[in-house]
Amino acid sequence: MMPPGSLALATPRGGRPPAARQSRFRGGKLGFSFVRLTMAFLVAAAPGRPQAQEDVPFITTPDVVTLAMLELAGVGPQDNVVDLGSGDGRIVITAARRFGAHGLGVEIVPELVAASRQHARAAGVAERAVFVEQDLFATDLRQATVVTMYLLPAVNLQLRPRLLALKPGTRIVSHDWDLGDWRPDRSLSLDVPDKAIGKDKRSTVHLWVVPAPVQGLWCSEGLRLEIAQRFQRFSASFTAAGATVPQAVVDGQVGAAELNAPGEATGTRARLRLEDAALTLAEATGALAAWQGRSFSRAGASGCARA
Ligand SMILES: C[S@@+](CC[C@H](N)C(=O)[O-])C[C@H]1O[C@@H](n2cnc3c(N)ncnc32)[C@H](O)[C@@H]1O
Fold first, then answer.
1. What is the pLDDT of residues 33-61, one digit of tens each?
2. What span, in angstroms and rounded, lies between the C-alpha atoms of 219 and 258?
3. Whose CA is nearest to atom 8 of ligand 1?
4. How far is the CA of 151 from the centre of ligand 1 (A)?
């Protein structure tokens, strides 16, 4: 697609006139998918950020890295890809053109938004690759199935609580920068001879899958399940009614709708499935074998009534 850095000359790296800073996306002739995506994502300005500003300079993700990001996230025609700080539009346009996805690019520099729309038209994907001039911190991400980012560590960390609160299963891919102690589910590094910055000419791509929020107390008849969760790791203790010590404590990985404790060290393996706000012990061995098939619901304000 576009040669890397091809828009650098059109992009002011310093300040912009106040009118441009305050301008907001104004729709022209809107196709159906354009309306569907933009209306779903646009929101009012983020609290505490009275005036939009650039938090990261414009540097392009080289095409080989763009492909690696979209492949790592397993992007396909069913996906809504949102690129936060979309630059010249390459990630969203590639997601639409090569992977058949719908995409939204959120970019604060008006010239880059205009250029991205032009590139999307030239690539024949303007219906599915939509660009808005907007502060990324003011973007409603709830419709996204994939979020892509090439930002900076501090910006990633600022975004982290919002990313973690997205629908479980949403994939997040970041070029180079991670999310602090929310460890990626997968990472890969690749040689990038045409990378515009850095002297080792390599890029790293990280993938996170938003885990289900399962922390807290869950109840079943005569049995309590207490889960401590830190990002995609969990520890769960199962305690029978009246008992003071748990029958079993297991730990493992939280996915979008499943918790897996392999139990290699303890001999007690557990797989819990999350469905319709209930956790079901779908597989259990060792100390939990007798409770296989049990379902748990979240405790009320007064804890577990009969456990
Ligand atoms: C490093 S570039 C990445 C561009 C593109 N995503 C890519 O990977 O090629 C970061 C982009 O974020 C934009 N940006 C910075 N702060 C922003 C903000 N608060 N809201 C929206 N876009 C922002 C910059 O203008 C720049 O184009």
1. 443 455 455 544 455 555 667 889 999 99
2. 17
3. 61
4. 7
